[in-house]
């Protein structure tokens, strides 16, 4: 964190981006604090209790004092565990100078956010009443309290807990971290004596504008309005608007011509330059307001419309949070988070569970995200209606002009005070609708964490617009991407579904300054993110990116007769598909000892066909003359802004065909075989192998005198058959060891059918040291067990792996999307997703579409294995279970052993849903559906 020891004087336009003062009749800003978490100003500070308490020292402002080493930590759910809520207070002092020429101005002090009760004094005198409520901007007029041309003293007392029980109940008994301090910037607002207090604008997609200009000026006789672009360039003069003055408000109406509308796919922003004029047309004050032209409608029994287009929210919940600074963030962090959301092809974000920093909403406006803005209550409403009304006013007055905001949320999960539902409209010129997250209210049903079968949506509120404001809870590695594809296949085509919001964006793990700076997510309460606390991308990040791609490509398999045609659906709301491009890249991959980079044999870029939003069509990839020689095809879609939408990978060669020239049996050596009643020992070149004579399982592998600890395999999973016989066959260039299981009647054969089946596996040791393994497993129609084989390989002996297959992230049965077929390499890590390590991709787990893998050993040579069968998963070790994984968030099953090759894998659930409640691919029962053809696994080992 950068500490600035002197006050920063920044002269900027208030709510504009001009960066310099053009006239004395414009608003000036002087920061008394720093601007964000990375730029703070030291103030004198005293903390009443906890760390570094009971002494005057220094603290950077803005900040949460716990993260600066003061006070005590509390998580909001501590009240349920009957833990002590710490009630320390902080005293702040800061000296600042005021120029003599400000005496002719109006000066206000603005606090963007203070936790929680805040008493402000200027030169020993109260600036106004104590402010209560932790997440809201407030200001005081202090012109009469200042010493001009001299030094001034600002004193602030901050109580972490409020004296208002309703505030504590709504904001502190919550499911997020509790902090204390002046955590958002503090600045002086210097205005001319005759000034515009604020502006509220309703700018419609049609170009129609209604604006309320609030002023107490007695000298104002007219309002002049100009429309500027986002950079401040003149667009058109709007002074011919109709204007009307009533009490302390001017209202003007009119219409802008030839404007571009705002939407998240093309967020066109403008500015209004509003000047207050006296009778002689002298400018008293000029005010700049950013706007976007768009129309929001919630049509009962139909949907949520923006610019006459029905919307599907692809959204996420987001806390204002950074692990090292708590609720103190920065514009850079806001932009980083929004870009990650848009990279996941999201179009919406819900403010959970309080209004965010201004810069976050500004970035949503400029970068393009729909927003649900929310006042802070969690399960418990503001029972004190008076304070609730005040905080709603502060929320709406601050945020009213952001085009990104579509809806207001009156609290969270039964936290709404019904006496306040209509207060939003009192302050919102746009009259945006109010929702109750997790409630059925007016036109909407925002139920949380519905199970898959609940998507039938056939209850007594089936005429309500449905969009869960929280779903697919991402505790640890569960939820989020896991199950999302199943949910979205139902939600997307539902006429009354307006999409939904995932819970939530980032793991809220905080740096504990009282615990050697360890990261603490308060057990299983806060590790719910798609990304880690520092933005580390988890596997679900990429699953969401594919599932929510606005270019939806129908599943396609490249086989003989492929004609290059792909069926596609345009899932944009406002963009024709011909605004995007598609790159086709035909690639080849090296083997285990080659390069990890794919070799491009042909590539081309095409413009996609003209397909309107919500319509379907086709596009065709040109087939190069040698396309059948490629191993895979990559299709990369790029949007109109040059951003990658997603890259899909399509295998052209299946593993058997691909590995045909990678596995060599040349270079013969002498094979020596020794057998007795218990062991079969084979030596060839520098390789010594030991197998059990009774079971055929491999017991020991030694290469150049060094043990490679692959053993106890292949154990046939989900098989109750016992070994019947083991046969050894010797020839000049190979040795075969075949283990036959006891024959078993087909399970559907009854007494009148003698057809029998027999499982087996066969080792073939070749004279060049290559070892083949062929396994035949009885296929059942369905099973909840694993079909495949497994081996032992101690975890401590694994250093990493390189592989050709889907990656680099592990998969679950209900989270297969988001990977890419190529050569990957991961070092060993023991990350417990969301809890510890935070190194991604996780090393341990299931990996799909295996072609080959090279396992690197610790103090051993490891081995390479080639897989010759399609649709085979590699299971690499067993991930450690997280602490207190609720319901299905780690209700996973693993094969025995350490390294496995399987045909089916486990799904994973979520915090609130067991796996059986999350859709077809979340069911642990696998349908194989073939009693005649066995399951074949063919591997080649290179030690």
From TrEMBL:
Catalytic activity: Hydrolysis of terminal non-reducing beta-D-galactose residues in beta-D-galactosides
Family matches, as SUPFAM superfamilies: (Trans)glycosidases, beta-Galactosidase/glucuronidase domain, Galactose mutarotase-like, Galactose-binding domain-like
Pfam families the record matches: Bgal_small_N, Glyco_hydro_2, Glyco_hydro_2_C, Glyco_hydro_2_N
Domain Beta galactosidase small chain/: 756-871
GO biological process terms, semicolon-separated: lactose catabolic process
Domain (Glycoside hydrolase family 2 immunoglobulin-like beta-sandwich) ranges: 205-294
Record's keyword annotation contains Calcium: yes
Annotated EC: 3.2.1.23
Keywords annotated in UniProt: Calcium, Glycosidase, Hydrolase, Signal
GO cellular component: beta-galactosidase complex
Domain Glycoside hydrolase family 2 catalytic, chain residue ranges per copy: 296-421
InterPro entries referenced in this protein's UniProt entry, alphabetically: B-gal_small/dom_5, Bact_Beta-galactosidase, Beta-gal/glucu_dom_sf, Gal_mutarotase_sf_dom, Galactose-bd-like_sf, GH, GH-type_carb-bd, Glyco_hydro_2
Entry-linked Gene3D superfamilies: 2.70.98.10, Galactose-binding domain-like, Glycosidases, Immunoglobulins
Signal peptide: 1-23
Cofactor(s), names only, from the UniProt record: Ca(2+)
Family the UniProt entry places it in: Belongs to the glycosyl hydrolase 2 family.
Name by which UniProt lists this protein: beta-galactosidase
């Amino acid at each position: 964190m950068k500490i600035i020891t002197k006050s920063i004087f920044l002269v900027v336009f208030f709510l504009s981006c001009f960066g310099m003062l053009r006239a004395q009749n414009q608003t000036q800003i002087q920061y008394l604090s720093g601007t964000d978490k990375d730029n703070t100003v030291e103030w004198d500070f005293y903390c009443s209790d906890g760390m570094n308490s009971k002494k005057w020292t220094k603290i950077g402002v803005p900040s949460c004092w716990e993260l600066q080493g003061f006070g005590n930590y509390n998580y909001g759910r501590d009240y349920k565990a009957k833990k002590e809520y710490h009630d320390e207070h902080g005293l702040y002092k800061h000296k600042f100078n005021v120029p003599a020429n400000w005496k002719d101005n109006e000066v206000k002090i603005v606090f963007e956010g203070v936790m929680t009760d805040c008493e402000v004094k200027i030169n020993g005198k109260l600036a106004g009443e104590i402010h209560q409520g932790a997440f809201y901007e407030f200001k005081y007029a202090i012109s009469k309290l200042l010493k001009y041309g001299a030094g001034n003293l600002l004193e602030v007392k901050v109580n972490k807990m409020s004296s208002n029980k309703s505030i504590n109940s709504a904001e502190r008994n919550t499911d997020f971290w509790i902090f204390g301090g002046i955590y958002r910037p503090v600045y002086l607002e210097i205005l001319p004596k005759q000034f515009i207090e604020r502006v509220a604008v309703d700018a419609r997609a049609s170009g129609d504008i209604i604006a309320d200009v609030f002023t107490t000026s007695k000298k104002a006789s007219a309002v002049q309005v100009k429309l500027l672009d986002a950079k401040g360039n003149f667009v058109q003069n709007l002074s011919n608007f109709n204007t009307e003055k009533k009490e302390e408000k001017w209202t003007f109406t009119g219409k802008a011509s030839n404007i571009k509308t705002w939407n998240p796919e093309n967020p066109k922003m403008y500015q209004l330059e509003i000047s207050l004029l006296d009778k002689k047309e002298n400018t008293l004050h000029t005010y700049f307001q950013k706007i976007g032209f768009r129309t929001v409608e919630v049509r009962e029994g139909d949907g949520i419309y923006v610019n006459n287009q029905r919307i599907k929210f692809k959204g996420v919940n987001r806390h204002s949070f950074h692990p090292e600074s708590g609720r103190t963030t920065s514009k850079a962090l806001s932009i980083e988070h929004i870009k990650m959301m848009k990279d996941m092809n999201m179009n919406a974000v819900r403010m959970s569970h309080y209004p965010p920093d201004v810069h976050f909403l500004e970035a949503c406006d400029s970068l393009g995200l729909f927003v649900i803005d929310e006042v802070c209550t969690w399960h418990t409403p503001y029972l004190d209606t008076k304070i609730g009304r005040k905080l709603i006013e502060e929320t709406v007055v601050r945020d009213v002009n952001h085009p990104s905001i579509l809806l207001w949320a009156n609290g969270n999960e039964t936290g709404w005070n019904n006496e306040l539902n209509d207060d939003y409209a009192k302050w919102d010129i746009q009259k945006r609708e109010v929702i109750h997250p997790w409630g059925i209210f007016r036109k909407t049903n925002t139920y949380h964490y519905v199970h898959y079968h609940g998507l039938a949506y056939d209850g007594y509120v089936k005429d309500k617009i449905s969009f869960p404001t929280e779903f697919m809870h991402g505790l640890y590695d569960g939820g989020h991407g896991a199950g999302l594809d199943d949910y979205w296949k139902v939600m997307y085509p539902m006429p009354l579904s307006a999409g939904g919001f995932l819970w939530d964006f980032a793991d809220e793990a905080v740096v504990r300054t009282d615990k050697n700076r360890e990261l603490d997510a308060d057990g299983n309460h806060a590790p719910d993110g798609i990304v880690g606390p520092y933005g580390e991308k988890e596997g679900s990040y990429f699953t969401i990116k594919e599932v929510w791609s606005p270019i939806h490509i129908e599943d396609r398999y490249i086989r003989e007769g492929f004609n290059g045609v792909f069926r596609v659906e345009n899932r944009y709301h406002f963009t024709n598909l011909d605004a995007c491009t598609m790159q086709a890249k035909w690639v080849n991959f090296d083997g285990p000892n080659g390069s990890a980079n794919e070799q491009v044999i042909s590539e081309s870029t095409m413009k996609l066909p003209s397909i309107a939003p919500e319509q379907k069509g086709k596009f065709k990839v040109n087939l190069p003359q040698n396309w059948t020689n490629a191993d895979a095809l990559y299709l990369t879609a790029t949007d109109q802004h040059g951003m990658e939408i997603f890259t899909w990978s399509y295998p052209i060669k299946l593993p058997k065909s691909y590995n045909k020239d990678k596995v060599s049996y040349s270079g013969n050596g002498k094979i020596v075989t020794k057998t007795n009643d218990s062991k079969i020992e084979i030596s060839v070149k520098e390789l010594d192998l030991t197998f059990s004579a009774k079971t055929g399982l491999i017991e020991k592998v030694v290469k150049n005198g060094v043990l490679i600890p692959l053993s106890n395999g292949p154990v046939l999973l989900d098989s109750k058959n016992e070994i019947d016989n083991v046969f050894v066959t010797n020839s000049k260039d190979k040795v075969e060891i075949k283990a036959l299981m006891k024959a078993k009647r087909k399970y559907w054969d009854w007494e009148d059918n003698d057809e029998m089946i027999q499982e087996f596996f066969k080792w073939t040791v070749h004279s060049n040291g290559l070892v083949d393994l062929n396994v035949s497993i009885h296929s059942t129609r369905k099973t909840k067990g694993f079909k495949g084989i497994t081996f032992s390989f101690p975890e401590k002996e694994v250093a990493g792996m390189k592989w050709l297959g889907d990656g680099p992230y592990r998969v679950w049965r209900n989270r297969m999307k988001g990977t890419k077929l190529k050569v990957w390499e991961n070092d060993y890590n023991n990350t417990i997703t969301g809890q510890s390590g935070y190194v991604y991709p996780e090393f341990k787990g299931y990996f799909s579409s295996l072609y080959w893998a090279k396992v690197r050993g610790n103090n051993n040579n490891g081995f390479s294995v080639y897989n010759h069968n399609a649709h085979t998963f590699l299971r690499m070790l067993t991930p450690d279970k997280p602490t207190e994984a609720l319901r299905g968030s780690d209700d996973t099953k693993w094969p025995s052993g350490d390294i496995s090759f399987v045909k089916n894998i486990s799904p994973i659930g979520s915090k609130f849903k067991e796996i059986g409640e999350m859709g077809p691919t979340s069911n642990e029962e696998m349908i194989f559906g073939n009693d005649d053809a066995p399951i074949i696994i063919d591997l080649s080992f290179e030690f």
